[in-house]
Design goal:
Length: 719
């Protein structure tokens, strides 16, 4: 089993490493395929061209503002409100919004478009607004040399020339690294919709067209600022790499899922880390696994791009040679993918665990939300039961007051609803009726169940068991159940007593009859006048022994009878039970030697003095040791221990029975009960009964137990 688990761990680790290494070795292919998924950001309407459109308006306004002419705000230049038939407040509000847009777009040229170089010239007033490293206006000249154009292309990733005539018609005379017709169409659509100005709801408002303007926009290869342009170009690159990598990452994930599904659940369920993970609340597990998958898909392109370009180590600014950089780079990539593939594999095993345990049970034990809902429902149910369950033994005035107050509160709320209160009152009445009817039916059913239970008991069926909830009758059901148990106990004891009486009569008759029969027989033999002296002496010896046996039996019977009834006087004195035990063993040494038993004593070296009746205690020891000599296996060891505790003294006798112990030891201390049911051995069957009675009369406890064929008697006296 341990070998299987080790092999499973190796397989999982290898599959995860193979998947991670497989993705990393596919980097050259991913780099090559990324070109298939790339797009031209300079033709993107929402990522780039909308900012060019905004810049056209901002720079157009700047050429008039920088001309020195009196232009108070952009709306006076660009906004036409002659046809607007609206109140002055709305017009002022739209003018304010329009002006804020132009001002914000002007600020965007400084901040969000910091990498954008531009040259804008107003052909009406010859005002130029520009920001560039080279003289972009040279691109306007159609006679620019090819060398000059090549120089621009070396420096710039993109440029475009946009021209507006005196009627506001837009054209693109030249562009690099972007289709001019694509740009023209999208810019024309942006200007025509005018959605950038958010004034479409102002009926009659128009945007004046840009006239007599020429714009040159250029984006250099080297982006020195972190702005919107660098952001969209980086996103384009990441997008291309991520699209190219999905095939390889998905293959790796499918491989991990396949291996995880093949591995038997039983081989991983006992792994320590898995035991910890499955006990994490399901909501947290969902978040972790979801984040793992999202992180792989959304951040893998960053890892891949920086790794493929050799920039990953540069991020932490370490000065290393290329070989070490590549080794560290690919090691970090393998670790990165291995971690997240491991989380996906664990997620599969968690699903297996949930399936094995059943979804409902798993959610009850591991869901924070389900636990919270169940606690709330339990609290509501408990509160409702406390409020509606009535104890028939109490007056329940407080519960009635609470219910009436709740009812009063609901009625008061209904009264505040005016005409709707009538409808609510009807609904409330129907609900109350349904609740009361259901409650009445429950009480009625509970009463019938209780009545059925009492009838069954009355008819003598004491084994009937009703575990159902009887609501307000539960306390009464509990009392009836106690009466039922009392009846069963009384009947059981009565049957036991009758059985014991029968057995007692049978055993006493047998034990008295045996010596009595022998006495009668030998008396008849002695009547023979021709009997020899030797036989006569032998018969008299038998008569003496049998009469003594009969005498001992009758004395034992009276003794146990007196002990059981408590009609016995004890002579309590200080008794050293260690000396008493030694004395008993000495007096019974002949019996012990005859039985060929080995006595193993564990007695304290000092005296152990207790307040006892020495004669009765000696009788207890004597009966137990005689019992051992009769029923122990020949040549076996007998253990007698006296252990003194803080507040009690324990005396134990242990012996191996000669015959299999196939009787109930709970009845061995009853009167006339013997270990040999055939009653072939001598004895009255009262030895253990007398011993137990004498111990209990002196305040001790007497316990008999067995362990296989080991017979044990434990006596405990308090100090």
């Amino acid at each position: 089993m341990k070998n299987n688990k080790f092999i499973v761990k190796i397989i999982l680790i290898l599959s995860i490493l193979i998947s991670a290494i497989g993705v990393c070795t596919a980097y050259p292919k991913i780099e090559k395929d990324s070109t298939k998924f790339s797009y031209n950001v300079f033709e993107s309407e929402h990522h780039f061209l909308k900012y060019i459109n905004r810049s056209n308006y901002a720079l157009y306004y700047s050429t008039y503002k920088n001309n020195g002419e009196e232009v108070l705000n952009p709306s006076q230049l660009l906004l036409n409100l002659k046809s607007v038939k609206d109140d002055r407040y709305r017009i002022n509000n739209y003018e304010k919004v329009f002006n804020e847009n132009i001002y914000n777009w002007t600020d965007d040229l400084k901040d969000r478009l910091a990498n954008l170089e531009y040259y804008a010239v107003n052909k009406s007033n010859s005002v130029v607004v520009e920001r560039s490293n080279l003289k972009l206006e040279e691109l306007i000249n159609d006679e620019s040399s090819s060398d000059k154009i090549s120089e621009f292309k070396k420096i710039y990733e993109f440029y475009v020339i946009i021209d507006y005539d005196e009627n506001g018609n837009m054209s693109i005379s030249n562009s690099y690294n972007a289709n001019k017709n694509e740009i023209l169409g999208k810019l024309d659509e942006l200007q025509r919709d005018n959605y950038e100005f958010e004034i479409s709801s102002l009926e009659g408002a128009k945007i004046n067209p840009i006239k007599n303007m020429t714009y040159i926009y250029a984006v250099p290869h080297n982006l020195i600022f972190s702005d919107h342009i660098s952001y969209i170009m980086q996103n384009e690159e990441y997008y291309a790499y991520s699209q190219a990598s999905y095939l390889f990452i998905n293959i790796a994930i499918i491989f991990i899922i396949f291996v995880s599904l093949l591995v038997p659940y039983k081989e991983v369920k006992d792994i320590k880390i898995f035991k910890v993970i499955v006990n994490i609340p399901v909501e947290i597990l969902i978040i972790i696994v979801s984040c793992a998958i999202a992180f792989i898909y959304n951040s893998s392109e960053i890892i891949m791009v920086t790794s493929i370009k050799g920039e990953l180590i540069n991020l932490v600014q370490l000065e290393l040679n290329n070989q070490i950089k590549n080794l560290i780079t690919y090691s970090l990539n393998i670790i990165y993918f291995a971690i997240w593939f491991s989380i996906i594999s664990i997620g599969i095993f968690i699903l297996k665990h949930i399936k094995r345990k059943k979804v409902r049970l798993y959610l009850r034990e591991n869901s924070i939300i389900i636990k919270f809902i169940l606690r709330i429902l339990t609290a509501i149910k408990k509160g409702w039961n406390q409020l509606t369950d009535f104890d028939l033994a109490n007056k329940n005035n407080s519960k009635l007051v609470k219910l009436l107050l709740i009812n009063l509160l609901i009625i008061s709320l209904i009264c505040t609803m005016w005409i709707f209160g009538i409808i609510v009152a009807i609904i409330y009445t129907v609900v109350i009726f349904s609740i009361l009817r259901k409650k009445y039916e429950k009480i009625n059913n509970d009463y019938n169940d209780l009545l059925k239970l009492t009838n069954e008991i009355a008819n003598g069926n004491l084994d009937i068991n009703n575990k159902e909830d009887l609501g307000i009758f539960n306390s009464l059901k509990d009392e009836i159940t106690q009466i039922q148990k009392g009846f069963k106990t009384a009947v059981r004891e009565e049957l036991k007593s009758q059985k014991m009486k029968t057995e007692l009569i049978s055993n006493v008759s047998h034990d008295l009859k045996t010596p009595l029969t022998s006495i009668i027989t030998y008396i008849d033999l002695l009547k023979d006048e021709n009997l020899s002296c030797g036989n006569r002496e032998e018969y008299l010896e038998v008569l003496d022994r049998k009469s003594q046996r009969l005498k001992d039996l009758i004395e034992d019977l009276f003794e146990v009878s007196k002990a059981t009834s408590g009609d016995i006087n004890l002579n309590i004195i200080d008794v050293d039970i260690v000396s008493l035990m030694k004395q008993t063993l000495l007096e019974l040494s002949d019996k012990i030697n005859e039985s060929d038993l080995i006595i193993k004593k564990n007695l304290p070296s000092d005296k152990v003095v207790l307040k006892l009746d020495s004669q009765r205690t000696f009788r207890v020891f004597e009966n137990l040791i005689l019992n051992i000599t009769k029923y122990s296996m020949k040549g076996s060891r007998v253990y007698i221990d006296i252990l003194e505790g803080l507040d009690n003294v324990t005396i134990s006798f242990k012996n191996i029975a000669a015959e299999e112990i196939d009787y109930d030891v709970n009845y061995i201390t009853d009167r006339f009960v013997r270990g040999d049911k055939s009653r072939n051995t001598e004895g009255s069957g009262l030895g253990l009964a007398i011993a137990k009675s004498f111990v209990e009369l002196q305040g001790g406890s007497f316990e008999v137990s067995t362990d296989g064929d080991l017979f044990k008697v434990i006596i405990v006296f308090k100090n």
